[in-house]
């Protein structure tokens, strides 16, 4: 066990995210604190988005007769609002030189060319669930830039490949709001305490069960799945596994991470590369899966080993409990 994990394990459940981050940083005497600050910026953006989501229904009512909300801002769809909030928080933080978002075709330069990091994110994933009060999530992935500091970031900073992520995680806006992240050593979960306005360590050192009895897949597309996926679905049925599919990647992934299960988004006849985006959906969750003992594959190899060639490229994904992912591929 390295120093950092030992330090983190020493902290009891119930400490604040800030304290946890500070404690983790203290294991590295030469750390500048920039990554710590970046994680705090992400948590802040998560709190703001959480607030927007919680009052979304009310805002619609308040804005029914016009296009402005209570703060005089234009009414916008929640995923656009989340995108704006996230970008603003990362720009203000100063550690990030560029952002790749699911909502924008090109990378967004923050103007902080001295920032060491780039962030790829899906600010609000699960679009079909956004307006119907079902769990949704933010997914993020952090890289140290490879281009020269002080110059504008470029494609190369984002196309380094999943193994080069230095941190990744997600925020789940569900029955409670949770931030789950890893900087490489273990995965920890923090639940948002509304009354304190703080994320509190609630799920320490999360370990993905090696096996489970949940499978999550959109069976509506069954007929267009590859034969090995159909075989796996039959296998799950023969074992009487539970089918659980929210249609919200973060929610489905999180449940399977805690309880043991596998999430599948295969290639289909119409989408031979699957639906989910490699850089800000598959990579970060694959990182969390692996750091917690789970696994993620595209059906051929490890998701993290795929070398990307474009910002918004897609990939099939089979992710979750290690043994279950192995079973999918074996079939
Ligand atoms: P989105 O980025 O447009 O929200 O799409 C991603 C979502 C995932 O959260 C979810 O697992 C999947 O799409 C559901 O897709 P489908 O409706 O095809 O089952
Ligand atoms: Mg998405």
From TrEMBL:
<keyword id="KW-0378">Hydrolase</keyword>
<keyword id="KW-0119">Carbohydrate metabolism</keyword>
<protein>
    <recommendedName>
        <fullName>Fructose-1,6-bisphosphatase class 1</fullName>
        <ecNumber>3.1.3.11</ecNumber>
    </recommendedName>
</protein>
<comment type="similarity">
    <text>Belongs to the FBPase class 1 family.</text>
</comment>
<feature type="binding site">
    <location>
        <position position="122"/>
    </location>
    <ligand>
        <name>Mg(2+) 2</name>
    </ligand>
</feature>
<feature type="binding site">
    <location>
        <position position="102"/>
    </location>
    <ligand>
        <name>Mg(2+) 1</name>
    </ligand>
</feature>
<dbReference type="InterPro" id="IPR000146">
    <property type="entry name" value="FBPase_class-1"/>
</dbReference>
<feature type="domain" description="Fructose-1-6-bisphosphatase class 1 C-terminal">
    <location>
        <begin position="209"/>
        <end position="330"/>
    </location>
</feature>
<feature type="domain" description="Fructose-1-6-bisphosphatase class I N-terminal">
    <location>
        <begin position="16"/>
        <end position="204"/>
    </location>
</feature>
<comment type="pathway">
    <text>Carbohydrate biosynthesis; Calvin cycle.</text>
</comment>
<dbReference type="InterPro" id="IPR028343">
    <property type="entry name" value="FBPtase"/>
</dbReference>
<feature type="binding site">
    <location>
        <position position="124"/>
    </location>
    <ligand>
        <name>Mg(2+) 1</name>
    </ligand>
</feature>
<dbReference type="Pfam" id="PF00316">
    <property type="entry name" value="FBPase"/>
</dbReference>
<dbReference type="InterPro" id="IPR044015">
    <property type="entry name" value="FBPase_C_dom"/>
</dbReference>
<feature type="binding site">
    <location>
        <position position="218"/>
    </location>
    <ligand>
        <name>substrate</name>
    </ligand>
</feature>
<feature type="binding site">
    <location>
        <position position="122"/>
    </location>
    <ligand>
        <name>Mg(2+) 1</name>
    </ligand>
</feature>
<dbReference type="InterPro" id="IPR020548">
    <property type="entry name" value="Fructose_bisphosphatase_AS"/>
</dbReference>
<dbReference type="GO" id="GO:0042132">
    <property type="term" value="F:fructose 1,6-bisphosphate 1-phosphatase activity"/>
</dbReference>
<feature type="binding site">
    <location>
        <position position="275"/>
    </location>
    <ligand>
        <name>substrate</name>
    </ligand>
</feature>
<comment type="subunit">
    <text>Homotetramer.</text>
</comment>
<keyword id="KW-0963">Cytoplasm</keyword>
<keyword id="KW-0479">Metal-binding</keyword>
<dbReference type="Pfam" id="PF18913">
    <property type="entry name" value="FBPase_C"/>
</dbReference>
<feature type="binding site">
    <location>
        <position position="245"/>
    </location>
    <ligand>
        <name>substrate</name>
    </ligand>
</feature>
<feature type="binding site">
    <location>
        <begin position="125"/>
        <end position="128"/>
    </location>
    <ligand>
        <name>substrate</name>
    </ligand>
</feature>
<feature type="binding site">
    <location>
        <position position="281"/>
    </location>
    <ligand>
        <name>Mg(2+) 2</name>
    </ligand>
</feature>
<feature type="binding site">
    <location>
        <position position="125"/>
    </location>
    <ligand>
        <name>Mg(2+) 2</name>
    </ligand>
</feature>
<feature type="binding site">
    <location>
        <begin position="263"/>
        <end position="265"/>
    </location>
    <ligand>
        <name>substrate</name>
    </ligand>
</feature>
<dbReference type="InterPro" id="IPR033391">
    <property type="entry name" value="FBPase_N"/>
</dbReference>
<keyword id="KW-0460">Magnesium</keyword>
């Amino acid at each position: 066990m390295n120093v950092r994990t030992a330090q983190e394990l020493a902290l009891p459940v119930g400490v604040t995210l800030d304290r946890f981050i500070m404690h983790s940083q203290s294991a590295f005497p030469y750390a500048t604190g920039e990554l710590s600050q970046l994680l705090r910026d992400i948590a802040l953006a998560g709190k703001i988005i959480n607030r927007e989501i919680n009052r979304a229904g009310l805002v619609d009512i308040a804005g029914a007769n016009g296009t402005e909300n209570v703060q005089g801002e234009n009414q916008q769809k929640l995923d656009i609002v989340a995108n704006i909030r996230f970008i603003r928080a990362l720009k203000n933080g100063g550690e990030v030189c560029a952002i790749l978002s699911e909502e924008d075709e090109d990378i967004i330069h923050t103007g902080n060319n001295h920032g060491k990091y780039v962030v790829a994110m899906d600010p609000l994933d699960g679009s079909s669930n956004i307006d119907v009060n079902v769990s949704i999530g933010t997914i993020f992935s952090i890289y140290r830039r490879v281009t020269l500091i002080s110059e504008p970031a470029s494609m190369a900073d984002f196309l380094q490949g999943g193994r080069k992520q230095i941190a990744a995680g997600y925020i789940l806006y569900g029955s409670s709001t949770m931030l789950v992240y890893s900087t490489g050593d273990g995965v920890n979960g923090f639940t948002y305490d509304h009354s304190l306005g703080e994320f509190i360590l609630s799920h320490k050192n999360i370990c993905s069960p090696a096996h489970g009895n949940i499978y999550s897949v959109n069976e509506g597309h069954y007929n267009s799945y590859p034969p090995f996926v159909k075989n796996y679905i039959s296998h799950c049925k023969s074992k009487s596994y539970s089918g659980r599919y929210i249609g919200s990647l973060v929610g489905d992934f999180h449940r399977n991470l805690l309880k043991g299960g596998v999430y599948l988004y295969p290639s289909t006849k119409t989408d031979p590369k699957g639906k989910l985006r490699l850089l800000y959906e598959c990579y970060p969750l694959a990182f969390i899966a692996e750091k917690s003992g789970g696994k993620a594959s595209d059906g051929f190899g490890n998701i993290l080993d795929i070398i990307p060639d474009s910002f918004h490229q897609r990939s099939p994904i089979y992710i979750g409990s290690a043994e279950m992912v192995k079973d999918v591929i074996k079939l």
